[in-house]
Amino acid sequence: MAASRKVPLRKCVVTKEMKPKQQLIRVVRNKEGEVFVDPTGKKNGRGAYVSKDTKVIETAHDQDVLSRQLNTKVDDSIYEELKEIAGD
């Protein structure tokens, strides 16, 4: 019997719960200080994960969670893009 592959878990920066990577969206700040949504989850830089849930994304926006996590100002357009991906 083949060993089932371990599912990579990541913590949502808003809800603080551990979830499989597929249920989260990664936001990255690279060395140049640019912040962008990383749907592949493979780009270089400081990453923060947010649940694919519009309510959670709105909470992140209201509390400016991503700006704190990534130590930089996160633009409103990033939150809009996250909401589109979550597609609630």
UniProtKB/TrEMBL annotation:
Write one Pfam family the protein is assigned to.
Answer: YlxR
Domain YlxR per the UniProt entry, residue ranges: 10-83
> Cross-referenced SUPFAM superfamilies, in alphabetical order?
YlxR-like
Task: Tell me the leader sequence span.
Answer: none
Name the InterPro entries on file. YlxR, YlxR-like_sf, YlxR_dom
Report the superkingdom from the record. Answer: Bacteria
In terms of NCBIfam families, this protein maps to: RNA_bind_RnpM
Q: What is this protein called?
A: YlxR domain-containing protein
